[in-house]
Design goal:
The chain has one domain: TolB, C-terminal domain (Neuraminidase). Helix content is about 15%, strand content about 40%. By secondary structure, the chain is mainly beta. The strands form 8 sheets. A 4-stranded antiparallel sheet has the order 1-30-29-28, with no helix packed on it. The protein has a 4-stranded antiparallel sheet with strand order 2-3-4-5, with no helix packed on it. It has a 4-stranded antiparallel sheet with strand order 6-7-8-11, with no helix packed on it. It has 1 helix and 30 strands. The protein binds 2-acetamido-2-deoxy-beta-D-glucopyranose (5 copies) and calcium ion (CA) (3 copies). One 2-acetamido-2-deoxy-beta-D-glucopyranose binds next to loops. InterPro entries: FG-GAP, Integrin_alpha_N. Pfam families: FG-GAP_3 (PF13517). Keywords: Membrane, Signal, Transmembrane, Transmembrane helix. This is VCBS repeat-containing protein.
Length: about 400
Amino acid sequence: MQEPSFSEDHSQKENHLSTKCRFLLWSWISILILIIIGVVAIVIFIRYQSSFSSIDIKYDIDIPCNPLKFSSYTSYKTGKTPWSLSTGYLDADSLLDIVVLNQNDATIGIFYGSGHGNFSQQKTYPKATTGAYVTIRDMNNDNKSDIILVYELLNEIAILINNGNQQFSSPITYPVGNYPYWLDISDFNRNNLLDVVVVNSEDASVTILFDYYNLSFSYSKTYTAGNDVTAVSVADFNNDSYPDFVTTDYSDNTISIYMNSKNGMFKSRKTYFTSVEPWGLATADLNNDNFIDIVNTNFGSFSLSVLLNDGYGHFSTRDTYYVGEGPISVALADLNNDTFIDIITANDNDKYVYIFLNKQNGKFQTYQRLTTQSYIYGVITGDFNRDGKIDIALTTGSKTLNVLLNQC
Ligand SMILES: *[C@@H]1O[C@H](CO)[C@@H](O)[C@H](O)[C@H]1NC(C)=O
Ligand SMILES: *[C@@H]1O[C@H](CO)[C@@H](O)[C@H](O)[C@H]1NC(C)=O
Ligand SMILES: *[C@@H]1O[C@H](CO)[C@@H](O)[C@H](O)[C@H]1NC(C)=O
Ligand SMILES: *[C@@H]1O[C@H](CO)[C@@H](O)[C@H](O)[C@H]1NC(C)=O
Ligand SMILES: *[C@@H]1O[C@H](CO)[C@@H](O)[C@H](O)[C@H]1NC(C)=O
Ligand SMILES: [Ca+2]
Ligand SMILES: [Ca+2]
Ligand SMILES: [Ca+2]
């Protein structure tokens, strides 16, 4: 009876010892594993952090210039609340200039370009009141680009005629609807006289001023629109060679498509849901099928909607991309020269410009972002230093214009 009990004791002792050994062994292995995990975690964290400072993660390597490379921003002083901006040739030197609408100040500012990517200090021109939108077009067909503004408080648009030598006429105004917010220019009735479509945000309407000639429009038409209609973009959506247009209906969470009846008159609008508070808007062919597609910012849901044209001017395919708090303006341009249009946007609540590269099929890669000054309203693109690479300019809440040069 003892032997078994002894042998039991003995084996228990042995078990006890080997448990101790195993405990020590496993402790060491565990510590080693923890150290390895720690090191790996630190390496990942450092790499993630450093890539985060200029750009974000996960790239499709087969897209050119990926990640993108831009200069850091150059800052130019503007007036109060620089809001909308536009680029074009405003003097006779064929070098791109930039006009900035200083919303809460009685001026617009023109930054004359040198062609090297740098600009003059702003040269100011008077305007009558606050303004919500500015664009550039040769309205009177004299081969000099004029400046067109929206006066939201006066329910008017205004045109400054370019008189050459960096001189402009004082603004000539034209009545539209209640609280106009944005406009676009085209020739809807195809008679070679320019027409202007204006969205009136506070009376849910769209005004079209037709046939600008000898400083006047010859007639206008008003169409009902969505609620708080904030932006408009003209494009031929159904490829019938007559220009159509799209609006963002901020309080309805929709965009509306207005199709031209091939006489400059418009059929009743067709709406598509986007997301919360659609605001900024741009149109271009994003998947290279020759049909024009739509991108809008959704201010309230911190996102972009991309709506692809099915070839008949219908937009049932919608993709959503998240971008951060308060996106307003959006621009479309091919930043990496692969023939596919990329998306450039920014938020009114941070200090980055966000770039979504086209995956060459109308879908977009995770954004890359570039540092700018804070609180961005307007974003535009243009080849400011004439190197064939499209650059970016934007207005900020620091009362500045920022210019970032493409170096990809
Ligand atoms: C129009 O103006 C540009 C300069 O802005 C000039 O290069 C071009 O030759 C002009 N064209 C005509 C037809 O006058
Ligand atoms: C722009 O840069 C060029 C070349 O670096 C320089 O010669 C020119 O004076 C600059 N122009 C302005 C307006 O700063
Ligand atoms: C242009 O408008 C002015 C003033 O309204 C008028 O006197 C003039 O006859 C018009 N010219 C043409 C060519 O229509
Ligand atoms: C658009 O219309 C033009 C002229 O009718 C035609 O040549 C072209 O092929 C059309 N484009 C597409 C993508 O269908
Ligand atoms: C862009 O691509 C075109 C066509 O491939 C090429 O000719 C041009 O040089 C490129 N531009 C730049 C700036 O790389
Ligand atoms: Ca016309
Ligand atoms: Ca398309
Ligand atoms: Ca591209």
